[in-house]
Write a structure and sequence with these properties.
Elements (H helix, E strand, L loop, with lengths): L1 E6 L1 H4 L3 E9 L5 E6 L8 E2 L4 E2 L9 E6 L7 E4 L4 E7 L14 H11 L3 H14 L15 E7 L4 E7 L2 E6 L3 E4 L6 H7 L6 H4 L1 H12 L5 H8 L14 E3 L4 E12 L6 E5 L9 E4 L14
Antiparallel strand pairs: 1-2, 1-12, 2-14, 3-6, 4-5, 6-7, 7-8, 8-9, 9-10, 10-11, 13-14, 14-15, 15-16
Helix pairs in contact: 2-3
């Protein structure tokens, strides 16, 4: 489960803003790290498969990932591209397909290889066709899912929703929120799984995010407050998530708000636990300048 938001400069009176809550198993450790540029001349080893070589240096990335995996839940690169994914379910059962790229793998590949949001969209479309999507997104159990993506840079942003190798793309006009469901109208009509309980577990969070984006100008502080809020559905299915039942255990384990500008390095605001309980840390995006990383996180 995840909630993502973005606001372009027309809605912020300042930099473009990207925000995401990463909802994962509450006992899973999530790592915030700086991923330095490198050359993958022999291919890139993702979580389950090897991706085609990338002979040019990758972009440096600040990202957050489950400790067991290669891919990222969310992050931002030195070119001021931010990206994240959310699990979605469609009429195509992901358990029937072989291991390939996970949604988190695709987020990391976008951030390492894309200098604009549009480039990130093109990369996802290409990799869905050449490598494919599939494989578990959880440690120790087979729980594959499809992904939606929100990708933003200082001037443009896009939603990408997928079902297997198929996808739909929608450019953001001003503000946009996504969650754990298909939201692009034609794609939603064609692919949404009829049994997914979006009315109880997803739509209340999605509507809360839409309301937060209506309060212009959208600010960093407003997005941080929204990610820490308990708006949403019952049983803990809230924006800052706390679900603990015999059937489901989900919690927000990492949060990100990013300021994206063309004239200075991106500024990331990160929480490394549930944002309703964890402090936020402000990190200029770039290589570490001392021996401590991440800085000021203890």
């Amino acid at each position: 489960m995840c909630d993502l938001l973005c606001a372009l400069p027309a809605a912020t009176d300042g930099p473009a803003l990207f925000a995401k809550n990463s909802d994962r198993p509450p006992t899973e450790r999530q790592v915030l790290e700086w991923i330095a540029p490198r050359v993958d001349a022999d291919g890139t080893r993702a979580t389950h498969v090897v991706v085609d070589p990338h002979p040019s240096p990758t972009l440096g990335v600040l990202g957050s990932r489950p400790a067991w995996g290669w891919g990222l839940e969310h992050g931002v690169n030195q070119a001021a591209v931010a990206a994240g994914n959310a699990a979605i379910y469609t009429t195509l059962d992901p358990r029937s397909l072989p291991d390939a790229l996970t949604g988190m793998d695709l987020v990391r590949l976008v951030l390492e290889r894309s200098s604009t949001a549009e480039d990130g969209v093109a990369l996802i479309e290409r990799l869905l066709g050449t490598v494919g999507q599939g494989g578990t997104g959880h440690d120790g159990e087979r729980r594959p899912y499809w992904s939606s993506f929100l990708i933003a840079d200082p001037s443009r942003a896009f939603v990408v929703e997928t079902s297997g190798a198929g996808c739909a793309v929608e450019e953001v006009a001003r503000v946009r929120a996504t969650s754990n469901r298909t939201t692009i109208p034609a794609f939603d009509a064609a692919h949404r799984h009829p049994a997914q309980p979006v009315e109880r577990r997803v739509d209340p969070r999605w509507r809360a995010s839409q309301r937060a984006l209506e309060q212009e100008p959208v600010t960093v502080d407003a997005l941080k407050a929204h990610l820490a809020s308990h708006e949403g559905g019952g049983g803990g299915w809230t924006v800052c998530m706390h679900v603990d039942t015999s059937e489901h255990q989900e919690a927000t384990t990492a949060s990100l708000v990013v300021e994206l500008t063309t004239d200075s390095p991106p500024i990331a605001h990160v929480a490394t636990g549930s944002p309703c309980q964890s402090p936020w840390h402000r990190i200029p995006v770039g290589p570490p300048t001392d021996g401590d990383w991440p800085p000021h996180l203890g």
